[in-house]
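Team,

Forwarding the record for the chain on the shared tracking sheet. I've put the sequence and predicted structure together so nobody has to dig through attachments.
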Amino acid sequence: MSTDLEEVRHFTNLSQVTNTDKNTEKWLWHVDRYRKEQNIKKKLNEIDNNEELDTYLSLFVAWLKKKDGTSFKVESMHNCYAALSRHLRENTAIQGGVRIWDRYNFPKALRCLNGKMRSLQNGGFGNTDQSSALTSDEIASCLNHDFLSINNNESLIRRVFFWLSILCGLRGGDTYNLQYRDIKRRQRW
């Protein structure tokens, strides 16, 4: 029996992702900073009912800023809530565990998170690194390049790949997963 438990412990440890654990610890540090600044005695994992946890999370989300007082980006706010969700799934005083993404049990926290993320987005703290669409001149330049020529099979395949990406709006893996049977030949009008 001990070897079975040893194997379970071994596989459980292998499934843990170090960066995820570090990320969760980082956000728990902010929760602890909030608790100390607000003179709250109970730690997050000591809260023993959903209503109190909902209020605690909504107040924390509303308060959350960087140590220097500047706002986090929208993606960071979402990342924080996801990290807290992972932590509370296994570390809570609430009987049966807790799922803080449940909008019925945690309506205030989720509405506060949504509102804060919208406010940050409107304030310019959203994802600003999104790519913009190619212009027609840029598309023509790509198609005129030797890399996408019709003179050899490999370049022709890249050209088809490029066209399908542009015309069908395919991104990343969508184009790679495309198979011949997914394309249907149509009669001209």
